[in-house]
Design brief:
single chain, mainly beta
Length: 361
């Protein structure tokens, strides 16, 4: 697998008790090692980021998972060599505890999911990376069957399709993926004629991952540590369920482990899920190249506790894990042929790491 020779930077979000920081570090794709973690910018409780390239420049967008006036999304100009972030502007997320942010493929629309607020908000992005005042805001109501975790609607993630025509919203509290049409000129969203797909009641859909072929979507169900395999019809804007598998062993007790993140390898051969709490593992699946079915082939140690987020490096050789409960960032190596993961190769200390990813160049 080719290793890029150009320098890369990683951005990492720390929800430190003192308030929060975004750190940057150099990345060595040959050894999987991080350089010294350097504070890039202070920001309240940063828990998720998204990146964009506009007219040759790199931009980063971060949510502050707070309440009231502190619930915001911020735009930064990012130097992909130094990792320095320069604040451009900040807007209200229009709801409490924004937990996820996504940028459309054309870098013209930004979407935010407000977890506690049970809502989503969209914004326009201008040619200099700044985000507009809110364009569309959708408030959800209702609840799911789990009285402790689904007592109300919880928008957990927002993802644009590869062509940018649709926005998919995982509503954790309602056990739904909602489908919206995107006006790519204005950033306005409207419910699609096929407005949603409902998952198993009480499962808690958290995040989704697209296969590189654009036809298969994998939906991570947090509450029962399972994943739904879905067919995506990009022309019609329709989700069709195919099958459902667990990310835990068959005899594992239900309701005591919860999943955190999901990702497909760049080569499309493997899918990975971060199991948390009672099972600190990374579930490794082989993806059937004909129909997208999943086969669990490994439960690798995550080298810490509670993997909230992880990222696969651009070469597909390394996984970078944010083990929030053990205050550690852990690097695992991926076998290019089998997809299986190594024991931890590197471990770095970072208070409450919530997110890590590689700046685009």
């Amino acid at each position: 697998m080719a290793v890029p020779s150009s320098p890369r930077r990683v951005l990492l979000c720390s929800a430190a008790k003192a308030g929060g920081e975004i750190y940057s570090a150099t990345w060595d794709p040959a050894s999987g090692a991080l350089g010294v973690l350097q504070k890039s910018v202070a920001i309240t409780n940063p828990t998720f980021m998204a990146f964009a390239r506009i007219a040759g420049n790199t931009y980063a967008y971060a949510v502050s998972e707070a309440t009231g006036a502190g619930a915001t999304v911020s735009a930064f100009a990012a130097d992909p060599t130094s990792g320095v972030l320069r604040l451009i502007n900040t807007q209200s997320s229009e709801g409490d505890a924004p937990t996820h942010v996504s940028v459309s493929p054309d870098a013209r629309t930004l979407a935010v999911a407000n977890y506690n607020g049970g809502s989503i908000t969209t914004y326009r992005i201008d040619g200099h990376g700044a985000i507009s005042s809110p364009v569309s805001h959708i408030q959800y109501t209702g609840h799911g069957p789990n009285p402790k975790r689904q007592e109300s609607a919880h928008a957990h993630s927002v993802r644009f399709t590869a062509d940018g025509r649709f926005l998919l919203v995982n509503n954790f509290g309602l056990d739904q993926i909602l489908i919206y049409r995107v006006n790519q000129g204005t950033a306005e969203i409207t419910p699609h004629t096929i407005p949603l797909w409902s998952t198993t009641p009480g499962s808690g859909p958290r995040h989704i991952a697209f296969h590189p072929n654009g036809r298969w979507i994998y939906c991570l169900e947090e509450l029962d540590s399972s994943v739904d395999i879905l067919q995506w019809d990009g022309k019609a804007g329709r989700l069709t369920p195919v099958s459902r598998v667990s990310s835990l062993p068959k005899d594992f007790p239900q309701g005591i482990a919860f999943s955190g993140e999901i990702a497909v390898s760049p080569d499309g051969r493997n899918l990975y899920i971060g199991n948390r709490v009672a099972s600190d593992t990374i579930a490794t699946f082989r993806i059937d190249h004909d129909g997208g079915a999943l086969t669990l082939i490994q439960l690798a140690s995550n080298g810490g506790k509670n993997t909230r987020h992880f990222a696969i490096d651009p070469t597909g050789r390394w996984l970078m894990l944010c083990d929030v409960a053990s205050n550690s960032v852990v690097i695992l190596e991926r076998d290019a042929k089998t997809g299986e993961l190594s024991a931890p190769i590197h471990t770095y200390s970072l208070e409450s790491p919530m997110f890590a990813d590689f700046l685009p160049v």
